[in-house]
Amino acid sequence: MTGVLAEDAGAVRILTFDRPEKRNAFTLESMAALQDRLEEGIADPGVRAFVLTGSAGTFCAGVDVAVLQGATVAGTHANLVALHRTVRTLAAGPKPAVAAVEGHAVGAGLSLALACDLVVAAEDATLRCAFPRLGLMADLGLLWSLPQRVGHGMARRMLLLDEPVRGTEAADIGLADYRSAPGEALEIAMDVARRLAAQPPLAVGFTKAVLAAGPRDLDAVLRQEASDQALLHGTSDFHEGLRAFTERRDPVFTGRR
């Protein structure tokens, strides 16, 4: 058992943490499986978006504490370098990802949710840093993603004081993008993912790469914009968009250059 299930629904690949007896806490093996499924989806032209979710009504409780037993400095560094591949794939990879959060998104589980482009949180969900309880700082990119979403003040409250955020509040403060009734996060996430899958793939990928680079000075962003936008003007998606606009119909994007 890898602890990660993969299922395709049209152009959307659903990736599910599936260790319900551990509240979907992940192991190194299950994270390697998640990375493999992401890479397979990226290589598959029929997959245009991902949904990341958890089984049995909870998202992910972070790393399985058993992984931390006997941890060494060198071993932890090596493990984090390996896990960072998945953070980069979600945040900066060419295909968009939506997190569907029910139950708990705790510790590194919260990190993985926020590595996704968009987050749907059920009203009764709990999103929490939890790292201070183990004498640790946040990892898997949470120090990068959380302040961008909620600002430095709220990020400090969550990172330093371990203040939890309920799903009812998450969308209001920017921690989540959409709110759902309990049990309906996956349904809403699928709707969002289908909409993402209908967008021009190359433009989505370029946009994700710029956003993942984080705050930069204006000139750097403008240089990137000039390069990427010029390339997009040479793609079939651009010409399809123009034709659809003039013909007053919805465009059908393929991702071909």
Name of the CATH architecture of the largest domain: Alpha-Beta Complex
> What is the CATH superfamily label of the largest domain?
2-enoyl-CoA Hydratase, Chain A, domain 1
Task: Estimate the helix proportion, in percent.
Answer: 40-55%
User: Based on CA inertia axes, which overall geometry fits?
Assistant: globular
User: Low-confidence parts lasting 5 or more residues at pLDDT below 50?
Assistant: none
What structural class results from the helix and strand content? alpha/beta
CATH fold node name of the largest domain: 2-enoyl-CoA Hydratase, Chain A, domain 1
Q: Per DSSP, what share of the residues sits in E-state strands of 2 or more residues?
A: 15-25%
Query: What is the radius of gyration?
Result: 19 Å
* Count of discrete structural domains: 2
Number of helices: 10
- How do the helices and strands follow one another from N- to C-terminus? EEHEHHEEHEEHEHEHHHH
| Number of E strands | 9
CATH class of the largest domain: Alpha Beta
Q: Strand order across the biggest sheet?
A: 1-2-3-4-6-9
- For the termini, the CA-CA separation is 39 Å
